[in-house]
Amino acid sequence: MSAPPHPDYEVVIGLEVHAQLRTRSKLFSPAPVTYGLPPNHAVHPICLALPGVLPVLNGGAVELAIRVALASHCEIQSRSVFARKNYFYPDLPKGYQISQYEEPIATGGWLDVRVDGNGARRRVRLTRIHMEEDAGKSIHDAAIAGGATHVDLNRAGVPLLEIVSEPDLRSPVEAAAYLRALRSLLRYVDASDADLERGNFRCDANISLRRHGESRLGTRTELKNLNSFRFVEAALEAEIRRQARILDDGGRVVQATLHFDPQSGRTRVLRLKENADDYRYFPDPDLVPLVLSDAQIERVRSTLPELADARCERFVLEHGLAEEDARLLCESRALADFYEAARTRHGDADVAKWIRRDVLHALAEHGLEIEASRLAPEALADLVDAVRSGRVTAQSARALVPELVLSGGDPLRLVRERGLEAVSDTSALEAAVDAVLREHASHVERLRAGEVKVRNFLIGQVMKRTGGKADPAALRRVLAQRLGEGAS
Amino acid sequence: MAAPLGTLRECREALAAGATSSSALVEQSLARAEACAHLRAFVRLRADAARAEARESDRRRARGEVRSPLDGIPIAVKDILVRAGEETTCASKILEGFVSPYTSTVMERLEAAGAISIGATNMDEFAMGSSTEHSVYGPSRNPWDLARTPGGSSGGSAAAVAAGIVPAAIGTDTGGSIRQPASFCGVVGLKPTYGRVSRYGLVAFASSLDQIGCFARSAEDVAVVQDVIAGHDPRDSTSIPEPAPRCSNALDGDVAGLVIGLPREYYEPAGIEPGVLAAVREATAALERAGAKLREVSLPHSEHAVATYYLIATAEASSNLARYDGVRYGHRAQGAHSLSEMYRKTRSEGFGPEVKRRIVLGTYVLSAGYYDAYYRKAQQVRTLIRRDFEAAFRGCDLIATPTMPETAFRIGERTEDPLRMYLSDVYTVSANLAGLPGVSLPCGFASGLPVGLQLLASPLDEARLLRAADAYQRLAAHHLARPPERG
Predict the structure, then answer these.
(1) I need a surface site. Which of A295, B180, B347, B365 has the fewest CB within 10 A?
(2) What's the pTM value of the predicted model, to 2 decimals?
(3) Best residue in B319, B332, B351 to probe A by mutation, most A CBs within 10 Å?
């Protein structure tokens, strides 16, 4: 466990995440779900709320919701109900949002979260998962809208999954770790791109403080729209400071909704609970209850991939990977798939090492993820093969990885074309060694005088001379011979 | 003055025999509409479009292609079903100038069947009302007595059929808005089972109660239109998946052995005009003489139906009408300085008093702290009312009641007393709450004004309902009576 975030108070955090489901069309309309189209170009009479239109539930969105619910160990309800949440706003075309209220699609469930690198787990319980539609976007930008407000309804009706956690999180670090785990899960089951930058993974946080040992929860506040993992931590830390100051002064925290200003690093009250809207929820009479049979749920279950925890365990037990490597590879399904495809011809731990040390490093240099890699897993296997057989040195091979990751290509051909084959031909090596011994006669003296680390200097010089292509084992053998040490 | 059109059957037969053409029928219909302009049955005529469609229909018929029994027949459609490129306003200022880019399912089906709409009929604003007085276009009049309302909210459609402008018209029924004006105007009006006719493109009033149906002079004609508009629609989630039976094939005139239930709660003489009660009694007696059995049944929760209906209908309406906010289409108030002022002014200017009354009531019903006492309780009572009917239908095939406890009232008589207007819905709202099909049939007159007999059936049982209605019309010819010609 990390250090407690506050010496006097225990911090209690619950998170509500809105994840955009990866469907082709909207939750209740055939309009496409796209990103980057001109305003009001991904719309249909249904999402414009024209008179007379009716919603029809997108079965694909339901299936994705089931996938997430199954992967997070929730109980899927055989009957759930869509309700109307009524309020007036220009980007809400119907004057109500269709959401699930009293009867959500899934309840209960949990997610295991790892806070530290050492793999210590915390189980975070989920309260519920429900489906709802997104609102549109109001554009106040003076450059676009002049003095007026314009409304873009491309996003109106896009399917969202709201995942509500129990107040089980105890620090901002844990909250961020939970969000990473949830994002990974959503992507694992292909339910959401969970791309924070595009706003399809958004988080609200409920937070309260209480004295250590106190069992009653303190008064909570809600932080809205925390749009990056960094903001989540910063905002929660700021709010902990704010609440602690109030409590230290003997004050009382007032239930309110707050906004985090990343510039000032402070939270600011948006509205107090007393002024909360009355949303006049009631079941949407245009929709029938969503009824799911066990058979339907099982059919979806049968299409789920092996999930991260199970896969990680398998990598450790069956492939003999280090827990840390296995964990890292399983953080993303694409990465674990890449590893499994590359390891088919190879020692597992070796491939894991190459992925972790070289492939991920090269990707990280460019802020990319494994999906963006042009290096095919089979090509990585070829490269590792070549190193093992001594055809190319590890040093030469590693130098090729960044290029392969960015541009792809056949690593064996690159080795050939660039003349990177390892030099194990004894006469070439002998010539290089002799030249180095001649040039560095004083070092040879020192080595003979018992200064053993000078040997590595000499090996390095030979490597340099051969452009890193010298087969290390052959090099050591020749050097020993030339120094008159006999076979070593 | 242009003569009234015949019944739908007469029009069909004349077309089939080559005795007339669709163009001739449409011309007659338009001329008749012109001659009956004082009824204010229409808010908009589509004369040119209708003429063009009639020529198309005539050309089809000349080639031997007839799409359906409605091909070439002029009809009228309530101003609440959208059609691409045409205005739909629901008789409300807030939708003034609204032109839909898409077409409702029912309009598509009518079009595909070759039916020709000559125009949009008048109605109470957003179908809220029982008199067609709450219209931005002004009140419609009852062809039987111009000082009286044709009922509502589908009063324009009922009046258009009664006056012989069209042989059939489309209406909608949320709490009686087809059956009540059918009763007041002396025509047949069918409200199908909830979900039988797609609501896609029907501007919503109360989603769980709204249903589209039709008016005609006879049950047989109603069956023909129903067969065209009914059936599953994937664009309406509440649409019934089962295929709709062909009602026109079920009309064999046989009522022998049919058990007709008479709910004792509906025949309390205190609440019914004596002339209405007498006409309804005579109608059920006629059915009995033809071989039907009459049996008293009980619907014990009937007294709560009107209250339940107004809680649910207004709650749903308050949410359904939130979209008329001046942001995207329709009326927007000028001169507002803030968003909330724009909303307030737009909706204050755009909605009439009855619509505002219901939005306020429905908003209250759904408010935190009142939801359980009103909306949730109303849903529970709705279930009890539905169970009442299930129990009653275990002892009978159909239920017969007066459609209304009275005949058409005078224009202006009720506008200051909305509660009295609501209470007269006592016999009609239960069918909407329970989702049942119901039909109103002319069954005689009281003080010279038409009286309606209401028959109700179990859900999905439109065929049995119309078979009994048609059988009754073979026994009694009240439906053939015509209102007096003016002047």
Answers:
(1) A295
(2) 0.90
(3) B319
DSSP state of A155: S
> Cα separation of A218 and A220, whole Å?
6
Alpha carbon B150 to its chain's center: 12
- With beta carbons less than 8 A apart as the criterion, state whether A24 and A33 touch: yes
Domain ranges of chain B: 1-487
For residue A182, give the amino acid letter.
L
CB atoms within 10 A of CB B91: 30
Place of tokens 């797609």: B198
Q: Is the ipTM of this complex over 0.90?
A: yes
What is A426-482's CATH number? Answer: 1.10.10
Of chain B, the percentage scoring pLDDT greater than 70 comes to 100
Angle among Cα B56, B62, B65 to the nearest 5 degrees reads 75
Least confident of A113-117, A294-298, B353-357, B405-409: A113-117
Interatomic CA distance for residues B135 and A211, integer angstroms: 64
Token pair of A209, please? 């403080």
Query: Bridge-partner residues for A162, per DSSP?
Result: A18, A130
Q: Give residue limits of the domains in chain A.
A: 9-298, 306-417, 426-482
CB contact under 8 Å between B237 and A50, yes or no, is no
Residues of B labelled as active-site residues: 78, 153, 177
Q: What is the pLDDT of residues A121-173, one digit of tens each?
A: 889 999 999 999 999 999 887 777 677 889 999 999 999 999 999 999 999 99
What radius of gyration, in Å, describes the C-alpha atoms of chain B? Answer: 21
Residue of A56, A93, A96 lying closest to B235 (CB–CB): A56
Mind telling me how many Å the CA of B344 is from chain A's nearest CA?
A: 11
Distance CA B379, CA A102 (A): 15
Shortest Cα distance from A29 to chain B (angstroms)?
10
pLDDT value at B278 more than 50: yes
Strands A256-261 and A221-226: parallel
Architecture of domain B1-487: Alpha-Beta Complex (3.90)
- Which residue of chain A is at minimal alpha-carbon distance from B84? A45
Q: Hey, how many other C-beta atoms are within 10 angstroms of the C-beta on A136?
A: 23
CA B5 to chain centre: 20
Q: Tell me if A187 sits within 8 A of A333, measured CB to CB.
A: yes
The reply to whether residue A282 touches residue B204, judged by beta carbons under 8 angstroms, is no
**Whole-angstrom distance, CA of residue A94 vs CA of residue A196:** 27
pLDDT, position A3: 53
Cβ-based contacts of A84 with chain B (< 8 Å): 319
Count the neighbouring beta carbons within 10 Å of the beta carbon of residue A238.
21
Chain A interface test: which of B77, B99, B325 (most A C-beta within 10 Å): B325
Closest CB to B322: pick one of A55, A86, A149: A86
Classified as helix, coil or strand, B357 is helix
pLDDT, residue A371, reads 85
Strand arrangement of the beta sheet that strand B116-121 belongs to: B42-45, B116-121, B74-78, B168-172, B212-216, B188-191, B438-446, B449-457, B398-402, B259-263, B293-297
List Cβ neighbours of A140 (8 Å cut-off, separation of 6 or more).
Answer: A149
Give the residues across from A449 on adjacent strands. none
The dihedral over CA atoms of B333, B335, B337, B342, expressed in degrees to the nearest 10, equals 0
